Amino acid sequence: MTSVEEPARPNGRIRDAARTKAEILDVATREFARSGFAGARVDEIAARTRTTKRMIYYYFGGKEQLFTAVLERAYSVIRQAEQELDVEHLDPVAAIRRLAEVTFDHHERHPDFIRLVSIENIHEAEHIAASEKLGRIGSPALEVIRRILESGQRSGLFTADVDAVDLHAMISAFCFFRVSNRHTFGALFGRDLVAPDQREHYRKMLGDMVIAYLTADRATD
Amino acid sequence: MTSVEEPARPNGRIRDAARTKAEILDVATREFARSGFAGARVDEIAARTRTTKRMIYYYFGGKEQLFTAVLERAYSVIRQAEQELDVEHLDPVAAIRRLAEVTFDHHERHPDFIRLVSIENIHEAEHIAASEKLGRIGSPALEVIRRILESGQRSGLFTADVDAVDLHAMISAFCFFRVSNRHTFGALFGRDLVAPDQREHYRKMLGDMVIAYLTADRATD
DNA sequence: TGACTAACGTACTAGTTCGTACATTAGTGA
DNA sequence: TCACTAATGTACGAACTAGTACGTTAGTCA
After folding, report:
1. B28-43 pLDDT, tens per residue?
2. CA B13, CA B18: separation in Å to the nearest integer?
3. In chain B, which residues have their Cβ closer than 8 Å to the Cβ of A183?
4. Could you tell me the domains of chain A?
């Protein structure tokens, strides 16, 4: 019997379900984003955790459900960011530009999220479809866009025929592509779309594009 | 010894290197696009072919090189389509719109290509980097864009500060996202971006967006 | 016509990978 | 304080998977 004051946990074993669960999700997010669903290894995820593979199955049930949980958490982060959007006090043009910039920034700051969404699309969104939390959840940004658009159209600043979901798709497309296709685009055209010194350039380009589209007088056909 | 007239090849075995190779590439394209690189199974690809797994290794060397060969062929198809682009006789506005539409149509017609590119981005374009055929190949469309832009800017129709690669990225982003993110977008917002009855709508939207951006008078900062 | 080789097929293996049976312990409430 | 359970760890197995060793045959050219 050693008289040395041992730390309270001789085996280094602490119990903290919440921490363990969160740590698994953190590591799984990185691994799935890095290697795709099939490419990610359950053993590898476990190894990068302070716990064991057993715990992944204990808490999540399996690889598939783990990926779904990763997606659910990733989407909840973006939804939270969108909820903090505060642009209603701006005039429509400034509000839309601000919204586009926030979207732009979020995509840039969360490349792992972009990769997860790309991967989920390869799997035809089957995990989203199977998730109760994610089905048809929409996004807070959509409501904001709807209100800004309406205000801008009422005042005659914006062209009348633009739909909120379409505008959201347009903004997302630009932000998403820039990050998701960074590597092939860079390899083929020799230009890094995510280079730091190009950041302001593309941020402005997005805003200019959206505003130009919204304020152009289109020939009615 | 049967006296029945056997077909010329009693074992059904015909030799045709070109056909075998092409068939492997066809099947591999579908399988990689469907399941991703790690998710695709060499045995499955072989099974869907009239030949055997042995031939995949005989002609391509391995799974990795097979994927590279699939990518090379897929890119050569789009480059060929772009080379047939004939818009130089149009005025700049019409030419850009036409170019956008051709890009739009090509993306819609080749969803497997989109998926392969998404997958290659998950792998950070390592196969493109390793391929002699694909490194920095650019695209014929770029040269076309360059010429139209120059002409439009010279005549004062277009704003001066637009770069050809950037414009190509803008057009590609819209076309690519619509196909690549079809499933997650549909699941989250309940709208199918590739629904046939929405096709003309989005095609027009892309053209309007690009022309609006190119002809807008931007406040210089 | 017969020898040579490119093209092809079969059967197998070594290593991997998801998942689980079973054992153990930390905390907690009676 | 003790029993009970949620939380955790270990060891293992069945199935899969990329890749290969070895044998065979169709076409062609000397």
Report:
1. 999 999 999 999 999 9
2. 15
3. 120-121, 124-125, 128
4. 13-61 (1.10.10.60), 74-215 (1.10.357.10)
